[in-house]
Design goal:
There is one protein chain. The strands form two sheets. Strands 3, 4, 5, 6, 7, 8, 9, 10, 11 and 12 form a ten-stranded antiparallel sheet that branches. The chain has one domain (15-306): HIT family, subunit A, CATH 3.30.428. It is an alpha+beta fold and 308 residues long. The chain has helices spanning 72-75, 83-93, 150-158, 195-206, 249-261, and strands at 15-18, 25-28, 108-109, 113-117, 125-130, 171-175, 188-193, 223-227, 234-242, 269-277, 280-290, 305-306. β8 and β9 (234-242) form a beta hairpin.
Length: 308
């Protein structure tokens, strides 16, 4: 999917440091040299209008469950007109989208997120979308300790027995990079994944090509080739195995892949594949990272996920 760029695009290598209990947010930026840093936090909404917040503060998600006003220049403003964000506002606030955009079917609504149909609509193609205004993977707030664990939310809905189970032999969760997405409201795809992808990941694990140590995630030893959609050829991914989704995957990829290699969070794609055996879910997850800096790398999860 070809995406539209955010009009307020910031320089390369963005990340954020939050003080104490979500104090002032400081964005550190650079253009390839170590000494080039500058504060790049945006101001309040034009006219001094206070930003909208989540409909209800989610319990247990930290003191600031939504991005602060200082990050609106990169994370989006509540008044933005993105179609997917309009769907979220309809589900959480009852604000109907303007014609000709149809009203969405709100499959599940919580204080933290909503679940919507993906396109095409079927029983193995859904979207988990935050109820906060978050444009996508480039939003620095996703790296903070106060952010909701959207990946675990997606898994709890998509798994067998979940609220909106993905009815497919194998499940894949994924998020696209800024350039590869079509809609500028963060959404995690909850879709199918090909059985050969599941088999390939288990083969790679047996061969010692999947690390269980996040600190090794960026190592070339764990860059693996996986066949994608028919006709798309093999793609290269960094392969990590985790026992659960309790950790912040956005912060993990930023700390162990993006920052050491001088990359951009905006360019990353992340894919989560629950390990499945004949007995069912094996209790661990394969987490794949990729971007166009890798040989045969990709910035989209669409090569592996099955939507139709």
């Amino acid at each position: 999917m070809n995406g539209q760029q955010n009009a307020d695009e910031l320089p390369r290598r963005q990340f954020v440091a939050f003080s104490g209990a979500m104090g002032a947010a400081v964005l550190l930026t650079g253009a390839g040299s170590m000494g080039s840093t500058a504060a790049a936090a945006g101001g309040p909404a034009p006219g001094g209008t206070p930003p909208e917040s989540c409909p209800t503060p989610p319990p247990g998600s930290g003191q600031s469950p939504c991005p602060p006003a200082q990050l609106q220049s990169v994370c989006g403003r509540p008044t933005d007109n993105d179609p997917l964000w309009r769907d979220v506002r309809y589900c959480t606030q009852g604000t109907p989208p303007p014609p000709p955009q149809p009203k969405p079917e709100c499959l599940k609504v919580t204080p933290n997120y909503v679940v919507l149909h993906g396109k095409p609509e079927n029983q193995h193609n859904y979207l988990m979308v935050p109820s906060c205004r978050i444009t996508g993977i480039e939003c620095p707030f996703l790296l903070s300790s106060g952010v909701e664990n959207y990946w675990n939310d997606a898994w709890q809905n998509a798994r067998s027995g979940g609220s909106v189970p993905v009815r497919y032999a194998d499940i894949g969760l994924g998020i696209n990079s800024q350039s590869a997405r079509r809609l500028n409201q963060l959404h995690i795809h909850m879709a199918g994944i090909r059985s050969r992808t599941q088999r390939r990941l288990q083969e790679l694990e047996t061969m010692g090509r999947v690390t269980a140590n996040p600190a090794q995630w960026g190592s070339s030893a764990f860059q693996v080739s996986i066949e994608g959609a028919p006709g798309s050829g093999d793609r290269t991914y960094r392969a990590l195995r985790l026992p659960n989704l309790d950790q912040n995957l956005f912060a993990l990829v930023n700390r162990y892949v993006v920052m050491p290699a001088g990359l951009d969070m905006a360019d990353q794609t992340l894919i989560v594949v629950p390990k499945m055996t004949s007995a069912g879910f094996a209790g661990t997850f394969y987490v794949l990272s990729s971007d166009n800096s890798l040989h045969d790398g990709t910035s989209t999860c669409d090569h592996l996920l099955v939507y139709s």
